[in-house]
From TrEMBL:
GO terms for biological process: phosphorelay signal transduction system. Pfam families: Response_reg. It comes from Arenibacter troitsensis. Keywords: Phosphoprotein. SMART domains: REC. The lineage of its organism: Bacteria, Pseudomonadati, Bacteroidota, Flavobacteriia, Flavobacteriales. The modification 4-aspartylphosphate is found at D63. This is CheY chemotaxis protein or a CheY-like REC (Receiver) domain. Residues 5-131 form the Response regulatory domain.
Length: 140
């Protein structure tokens, strides 16, 4: 099973660029990357996709610290959307605060908390887990 679409919600252009490179070299990844620089932009785009019946990304990599709408605010609004097959959300943050990690566990949609940087081995393990468990059915 290939992960066709990944959504990156992060305001750090270096992280976004590096993640795109890692995705391009991963055999489990399809071809489409959607990038949003803050939670509001992402929420608006994903809401539009839901309303138009478009397929949502398979995986969302979500940063916590962003301008306009942070990752927590995004999650609080995103979980309210009427979506049958919700994407797998992975928080990818430079935070090592246990409170953030524990808070992430309170969201059913969040599958894991990954401390930056994202590496090829982390991405490969993550995609293997998704392939083993199926795309839309597990939690942290």
């Amino acid at each position: 099973m290939k992960i066709e679409t990944v959504c990156i919600i992060d305001d750090d252009p270096i992280f976004v660029y590096g993640t795109k490179i890692l995705l391009n070299y991963n055999s489990s990844f399809g071809s489409s990357v959607i990038v949003n620089e803050d939670g509001k932009e992402a929420l608006d785009n994903l809401t539009s996709m839901v309303r138009s019946g478009e397929k949502l990304p398979d995986v969302i990599f979500l940063d916590l610290n962003m301008p306009i709408m942070d990752g927590w605010e995004f999650l609080d609004e995103f979980v309210k959307l009427p979506i049958k097959n919700k994407p797998r959300v992975y928080i990818v943050s430079s935070s090592i605060d246990n409170q953030d990690i524990e808070k992430a566990k309170t969201y059913e949609i969040v599958k894991d908390f990954i401390v930056k940087p994202l590496s090829d081995s982390i991405l490969t393990d993550l995609f293997k887990t998704i392939e083993t468990e199926g795309l839309h059915n597990t939690s942290l």
